[in-house]
Design goal:
With 177 residues, the protein is α/β, with parallel strands linked by helices. Helix content is 32%, strand content 24%. The strands form 2 sheets. Strands 3-2-1-4-5 form a 5-stranded parallel beta sheet.
Length: 177
């Protein structure tokens, strides 16, 4: 059986940490949204670093894959915690992993990305923080009137009573190390 091609999908934190140039024997992918976010963060921090993207393959996931990730995020209660950048990373990893000759792993410190990756059956690696220990399905609810929200409002205030909307685990599943 031929060996599988090792592929890493990098989020912004992985690129800012320099992983794109330190993964020998593997291909490194990301999306244009990640590149833009990394450039913005470097500018905000007034860092003089040049963004080394020469070894990265920049690829956009299909709209169909993005929609399936958004649907999965909604079911898990992660939609309010995932940015469009996060969704692009998860979508790209899902799309690349559909080719059985690819061994795909996401590099991210983001717990919501890790939670989604685990639920989607995607491998992930956390390099600056501890990996998640549980997969969590979240529920959003109003602290005042206790109404539940599938998609909480952007300001996280209840549209009925104005109280703060918070999230809590609906159910959890331990992850095998």
């Amino acid at each position: 059986m031929p060996s599988r091609k090792r592929i890493f999908v990098l989020d912004t934190s992985a690129i800012l940490a320099g992983f794109q140039s330190s993964l020998p024997g593997a291909e490194s992918y990301t999306t244009q949204l990640v590149i833009s976010e990394a450039r913005r963060k470097l500018a905000q921090e007034k860092r003089e670093d040049n963004l080394d993207i020469g070894s990265l393959i920049v690829m956009e996931p299909s709209l169909e894959t993005i929609e399936s990730v958004i649907l999965q995020a909604s079911k898990m209660g992660e939609s309010a915690n995932l940015s469009s950048v996060d969704i692009s990373i998860l979508s790209l990893a899902k799309q690349l992993s559909q080719d059985p000759s690819n061994k795909v792993e996401i590099l991210s410190n983001d717990y919501s990305i890790q939670n989604m990756s685990n639920a989607m059956g995607l491998a992930y690696y956390s390099f600056g923080t501890q990996r998640i220990k549980k997969e969590i399905n979240w529920v959003y609810y109003c602290k005042g009137c206790r109404r539940k929200y599938q998609h909480p409002p952007k300001r996280m205030n209840c549209v009925y009573c104005g109280s703060q909307i918070i999230r809590k685990p609906r159910d959890t599943r331990h992850i095998k190390p």
